[in-house]
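Anyone opening a protein record will find just a pair of labelled lines. The record below illustrates this layout.
***
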Amino acid sequence: MASEQWFVGPLPLGPGETPPPDDLEPGAQACGKPSWSTPPAIPGDPPEPEAEDVQEQLQEAPAASTPSPEPLGPGPGPAAPRLALDTMFSPITEQLRYLLKKAEDFQSYLLYSRDSVQKEQLAKAMPTFLQMCEPYFLYLEAAARSMPPIYGALQELIRKGLLEISQQLTLRLEQLVLMYASFGFVSLEDTDPLSISCFFCGRFSISPSHEVSIFRYCAPAAYTASRFPRYLYKKMRWSLETMPEPGGRGQDSHVDYYFLCYRDTWEDTGKSPANSCPQIQKLWSIGRWVPLGPAEDDIYSWILCPQPPGDYQQLLTIGFEEPSHTLATDLLVQILTGQAGPARPPSAAGPAAWAAPGS
C-alpha cells in the first residue's frame, strides 16, 4: 500500500501559538472504522516532500487500487467465512485508510498553514484528489450492486460492507470540499463548469445494457437555473446509460437523469422557517429530469443557454428525513427495476423484466 506524503511537515510556530491537534478540527465529524473489520495500523510515514511538489506528487500518486477478490462460497462453519471475509476486505480497508489520511492532510494544512501559496496549491490539487478516488468508488459500487451477484452465499454481507465504505468516503469528501469552499478556494456554483458542485461516487450495471453512474452534490443546488419547479433542490444525481443491444442496428446510447431532491415546503406557505415546524421544512423525493429545451437540432440555443430548463417527474416520495447516500441509490434501483411503485424506465430498449405499470 502506497503511503507517500503530499505535504510538508508542520510549519514553525509563532510566539504564543500552540501546535495543531492531531485529531480533526472540532466540529468536523471523524469517519469511524467499518464495524465489520478492524484493519491493522499503518506504519509511520516517510519524510514529507517540499510544498512546491504538492500538485506534481498528487498527480503521480498511485490511483486507488481495485482489488479483485475471488468468489467465495459457504465454508464448513461460521468461523471460516468470517476469516475469509476479513482477509478479502483487508486491502480494501487499507485503501480506505490511505484516502482518509490524505483527506485529513488536506484539511489540516488548510486550517493551520499560514502560507497562502501553499493553500492555493492545495486548492488546485483538490479536483485531482477527487479523481484519484474514482477508481476506488468504481470498484466498491460495481462489486456491491452490479448484477448478477458474484459472491454467492456471502453476497449480502459483502454488499453491506462495501457500501458502508462507499458511504464513509463519500461523506468525508463532501465535508472536505465544503470546507475548501468556505475558504473561497473552490466554487460550488452548479452553472460554473470549473466548480466542484458535485463529484463522482461510482458506477454499476443493473442489466447487460444499462449502467448507473452516481454523483453527489456537495451543497444543495437549485433544480434549474430558473428555480423551476420552485423551491426544489438537488442533492444527488444518477445517470442511467442505455447501451445498444448486441447486434442491434441503428441504435445509439441514451442517457436519462434521475435526482434525489428536497422541496422546501415552508416556502410554499410564505412563512419563515422560524414560524414553521422544522419537521416539515424538507420533503425528499426521487424524480426524473424531463428536458424542456433547447431544441436538439439548434446548436446555437445550447451555446447561449446557461442551463437547459427541465421539468421534474416525481417518481417516489421518501419523507421528511434525508436518506443516506446508500439508501437513496437502493431506492433508485427499486424504481428502475419496477419494485417501488408505478415507475417505468424511460428508455424503450429496457429489458422486459423492467416492465411496470405506467405512471
In short: The helical segments are 54-60, 79-112, 116-145, 155-182, 265-269, 299-304, 325-336.
